[in-house]
Structures are given as C-alpha cells and as structure tokens.
Design goal:
The structure is a homodimer. Chain A is α+β, with helices and mostly antiparallel strands. Helices cover 30% and strands 25% of the residues of chain A. In chain A, helix 1 runs parallel beside helix 3 and helix 4 crosses helix 5.
C-alpha cells in the first residue's frame, strides 16, 4: 500500500482534529468519556457481495456502508455518535480511493453530527469496509424482544423500493428513467434515526429492514415469542412501485418481503406510538412465525414460496449477532 | 452462506448469555452501561495479507486477530472489556469454520476476562476478521505523544522473535525444531495487558510493536516531537535468536527493527517506571527521527537501508488511525 501515512494524515484532516478531553484519530486506540449508556454495532460491506463498483461511486459505497451500520443504531432508538472505520483494499488501488471513501463517510457524519474517532487501513483482495458505529441511548432502547400481543406493526418509508432499484441494475436497466427513483433508494439509503428516536418510551420493539420484511419480522417474532401478521394490502407503495416491479418480472410484495436493503424500520407498539412518518401494516398476535394477508387470504410466509426470491446474491444475507 | 442462524445461535451459546442490564449478542446493537472512560480500537486480519492458512489453524487465526486488536488496548494501558467481531468468508467455507473461529476467540476472552457483545457475519472472497476491542482507562492513558527528552526507552519481550518465526515459515522450515520457539511466537502472540497497565501514571508514552521497532518508534518520535535512540547492543534476544536469524540469511537486529508482528510494547518514561518485565533499550533525545546505535556507531534508521526488509508481503503493513 503506497503512501499509508499520507492517507492517515489526510484522514485526520478530513475527519477533524482531536477534541479534548477525548483522544480520537492518531493513537493506538480512541478514548471516550461518557456516562450515558453506549450502543454499539458493527457491519461489513464487501465488494462482490454487498456492492458492485459498476453501480456505485466509491463515495456512495462508503456512505452506504456507514448508513447500514447506523441503521442498526436507528433500530435501537439511539443517537448516533462515533465511528471506527476498518477499510481493506488491494495495494494496486488508485491513490484517491481513501479520499473518495472519506468524502462519502463525511456526507453521513455531517448529516448526523457523528465523529470518526479511529480506524485501520489494510491490504485485501477486494474493497471491504467494516464500520463500527457508537451511539447513546436516549431512554429505554428498542429491542427485538419487546413485541406484545395487541401491538400494531408499522414501517417507515417504502419497503421493497430499494429491491426494485437493485433488480433494475441487475437487469441492465438502471439508466431507464422509470427506475431512477428506485435505483436511488438502493444507492443512497438513509438511516431512520429520527424515526427510531421518536419511538423511545412509546413503542415496544423495533428492527431495521436489511434483509426484507419477512426475515426481519421473523427476528422480532422469535425474540418476542409471538406471531406477526403483515397486511400486504396496506403496504406503503411509492407511486409506480408495483408497475416498476412488474416491468422487471417481479412482484412488489415479494420484493418488500424478501428484497432487503431498505434500511427502513419495522416496529411494534400501541397505535399512538406512531406518527405520520409511519405506516401501520399489521399486528402482533398470539402464536409464532410471520404471516401475510393478501386479498383477504392469510398465508404463513414460508408457504408463499418466496424464500429465495432475493434479487441479490444469496451470500449478501448477513447476520448480526 | 448456509445455516447463518444456526451459526448465530451457536455463537450466542459459545460467547455466553446476556448479562443484565447490558444487552449483548442478539439485537441490532449492543448496549453498554459504564461511567469510566472507554478505550476503543479496530483491527483487521485478512487471509493472504496477514495470514496464510497453511501456517495457522483457524482457531489460531481468530485468537491472533483478537490479540492484535487487544494489543492496542495494552499500548494505551487500558483494561480489556468487550469485543465486536465482524467476520466475512466464502459461502463455500466448511460449516465448522465459525465454531473454530469462536473457539480461538474464547481462548483470548477467557484469558483476559473479555466479553463478546456483538458482531456481524457476511460473505467475502477470503476469510477476513475485523475486531473492535473496547477497554476501560484505569488512569491517564499511555499515548504516543507523551515522550520527553531524558526518558529511557523500554520494551517487553523479544522484538524480532516473531519475525524469525515468520521467516522460517516462508522458507519452508517451520517444522525445524531450531525455529519452533520463534514460530510459536509468531503464531500465538500475547497482548501485553499487565505490562501496559503497570505503566499507567508512571511512563510517558507507549505503542505496540506491530510494524517493527523502527516504524513504531518513529510514530512516538513524530507525535512527541523528539528523537528516539535505540541501542541494538541492548536488544533482549532470546537465546539462539541471532543464530536462528542468521541460519535464515537474516540479521536479528534488522528483523527486530523491521520485522513486526511482535505485539510487544515500546514505552518511554523515567527508569523507575519499568519493572523486571521491561528491558531498557534506548533513550529520548532532543531532535527528530529514530537512530540506532550498534557497535558504538549511531546511524539514522533510514540510512540503514533496511526499510523494505519486512519478511511479509509489503501490504501487511497496516495503519491505525
């Protein structure tokens, strides 16, 4: 890797000076002084698995990697704080790769008021970005295991819209204006920080939609010990979402259930917990598993036969632990 | 990736149950309640760059990755606490890969009383382990920028011993008993936590030896604004270290200066700061840069012509920031 110390000096400049009494970039480790409960998560974005450089600029890749990590903070109802960035890439990479990555990160840190407090650069066969995100709890955190029978289920945004965009890119139709909005939703996701915070002390459970509604709902179902019923007829489609999915040979509901990479939130709680940013799409019932109502018919999600509907490579499916 | 949820369930078992009131493994993010200053670092170990599976078992790879990250906590004088593990690997990997990795991590967490509080599994072209390590400051942290003129320089262990082991492996002589001790030092490094803590409130600066004495000393020199003089004639060789290096066509001093991967500590401070675990190998002088005394002759480290002496691939050189 050429110019590693130049890279580091540049990153120090881009990510700002040290804020006393904290020690950030520039030592073996960063030091944080804080008495509030910390919320921590880690997420990886690997070239060829999570992204393809034909479809994303380098700065978009970096911004997307950070939004995906921060989305886990949103799902906890936490306030975003600091980032640690571990980047590996081939030593033959262009010199401006690190700068472009840093610019992408800066877009997110400036939007969310976050700080980069450290990181690590190393060689590797492909570009791989692992982001550790720290936040602060601003009340009881939203967990996966808090759903209660009688809760309604609500989502932010438009589940499945990002999956339409990815399908368009996979079909070589990413430049078709009919798909522009969907491609942008896949390219530039936005972690739902404010929406997550609005639920603290009000909702009972939450999770972010990285794997699709079906999979992510099943995590809440399993952790909370109850059944989740999703109403496909109440899904908050963007105008044209169903038609765009159809034009790509897909079903919009299937993409919402299994497409993933929306980085929207799914939450449960009393109806009063959810303001206009949320759409009620179901309810929590006694039992187990995830069911879908469509046209008046209720089906267990496994029985829909869409488990392997994901438009991305199967290995994209990640698991947080 | 097959059986990801089985992997996660297994990891939850291996890494222990949730300790109330903290929420660890099993949600979007982990929650930590702590009022002491946190010390955080991240480190990556990438197959083909940092390790080769011919030379290390999978559990040794994982243990080594954690020790390397924790070594940064040792260099700050921090007490190790929690880990977040981001692992990526090909979806064709054997099913027991995650279990073997977890066993390696457990060796370290049990030795150091650490907890795994979260992580992420994803696909990737090679095995890649990114470790975020959290610790607690137990007094003023040891920084790179605290060295003062008049300080002595001291190291733990035997710098260059791991590099002899790696050279033996590269030469296909890893099984030769003459190199066993050195190969083991490379294979199974041990973060110098107790040694780092012993300096808190006593020494003035510290860094861990991941890149070799020359490079790591230059970080202290640059951050502290003074010159570091290393005495090659006081280097704490293991019995046979010089002979083993010579048998591999190497100079033991060159390996100590440029070999790296020792995960020992280099520190500066008053002589009284250092107990019997430390060897005094130099002093801090007015000026800039790193110099080496050998046989009575003092030479600037760049002028030794050993900059590219590293036995590993050049891209192994990482940069923390």
């Amino acid at each position: 890797m050429t110019g590693e110390f130049e890279h580091i000096a540049h990153l120090k400049n881009l990510f700002g000076a040290l804020a006393s009494p904290d020690l950030g970039i520039g030592d073996d480790a960063a030091i944080l002084h804080d008495s509030r409960p910390l919320v921590l998560t880690v997420d990886s974005a690997v070239e060829g698995v999570h992204f393809d450089r034909r479809w994303l600029s380098v700065s978009d890749i970096a911004a997307r990697a950070v939004e995906a990590a921060v989305s886990d903070l949103a799902a906890m109802g936490a306030v975003p704080g600091e980032l640690l960035l571990a980047w590996s890439f081939p030593c033959t990479s262009p010199d401006d790769l690190v700068t472009e990555l840093a610019h992408g990160v800066r877009r997110v840190t400036q939007r969310l008021g976050m700080r980069v407090i450290g990181g690590n650069l190393s060689g590797g066969p492909v570009l791989s970005l692992t982001t550790t995100a720290l936040g602060r709890a601003c009340g009881p955190c939203l967990r996966r295991d808090g759903a209660r029978v009688g809760d309604v289920l609500a989502v932010t945004g438009h589940p499945g819209a990002a999956a339409v965009g990815l399908r368009a890119l996979l079909a070589g139709r990413g430049d078709d204006v009919a798909f522009t909005e969907f491609v942008n939703r896949w390219r530039v996701p936005t972690a739902r920080i404010a929406e997550g915070r609005s639920l603290v002390g009000r909702a009972h459970s939450a999770i972010d939609l990285s794997d699709g509604l079906a999979q992510d709902a099943s995590h809440i179902s399993a952790a909370s010990g109850c059944a989740l019923l999703l109403d496909a007829d109440r899904m908050p489609w963007i105008a044209g979402q169903r038609e765009a999915a159809r034009a790509l040979g897909c079903d919009a509901t299937a993409l919402a259930l299994h497409g993933g990479e929306d980085y929207e939130l799914l939450a449960s709680g009393p109806r009063s917990a959810f303001d206009a940013r949320w759409t009620i799409i179901g309810e929590v019932l006694p039992g187990a598993g995830v069911m879908v109502v469509r046209g008046g018919k209720t089906t267990a999600v496994e029985a829909l036969g869409w488990d392997h509907f994901s438009p991305g490579p199967e290995s994209r499916r990640d698991s947080d632990f």
